[in-house]
Every structure is written in structure tokens, then in C-alpha cells.
Amino acid sequence: MKEYIDRIGKYTFYAGVAVAIFGLVKSFMDRRGLPPGVCPIEDNRYIMYAGIILLLISITLDFVGDYKKKRQQRGDNSDE
């Protein structure tokens, strides 16, 4: 079960980083065609939110995986 959680955590981290990079690149590309004073993030807000949510899920899964690893090392396997 721990390996499964670790694997999902890694994949969500990679997906979160990819979405965040895509959102930043899209913002910089959109900024070139906008007049001064216009915020390019407004149109890409949902892309940024998706990247942040994926990274938060990755952090949470990493904490859960570490918790399960520490419990297993102590010998307390009551949930498995």
C-alpha cells in the first residue's frame, strides 16, 4: 500500500509541476500581445489553481507515505 501511495504522490507532483510550468509559459506568451497594465494571469487562473491543487495533493500523499513507513518500522501494522 505504501508503494502505491508513493507512486501516486510522485505522479501528482510531476503533473503539478508540468501544469504550473505550462501556466507560466502560457502567461508569458499571452503577455506579449497585451497592452500595458493588463494582467495576463486572469485568463490562466484555473491552470494555476490546478497546478497548486496537484502539488498540495502530492505533499499530502508524501506525508501519508512517510507516516505509514514510520508506523511499519515501529511494528504497528494494525491497519494492514
Approximate shape: rod-shaped
How many domains in all? Answer: 1
How much strand?
under 5%
Total strand count, please? Answer: 0
Structural class: mainly alpha
Question: Mean pLDDT, rounded to whole units?
Answer: 83
From the alpha carbons, calculate the radius of gyration and give it in angstroms: 18 Å
Largest sheet: none
Following the backbone from N to C, one meets helices and strands in this order, namely HH
Low-confidence stretches: none
Number of helices: 2
Q: Distance N terminus to C terminus?
A: 8 Å
Percent helix among the residues? over 70%
Short description, anyone?
By secondary structure, this protein is an all-alpha fold. It has two helices and no strands.
Keywords:
80 residues; mainly alpha
Describe the protein's architecture and organization.
Helices cover 76% and strands 0% of the residues. By secondary structure, the chain is an all-alpha fold. The longest helix has 31 residues, at 2-32. The model has no long low-confidence stretch (mean pLDDT 83).
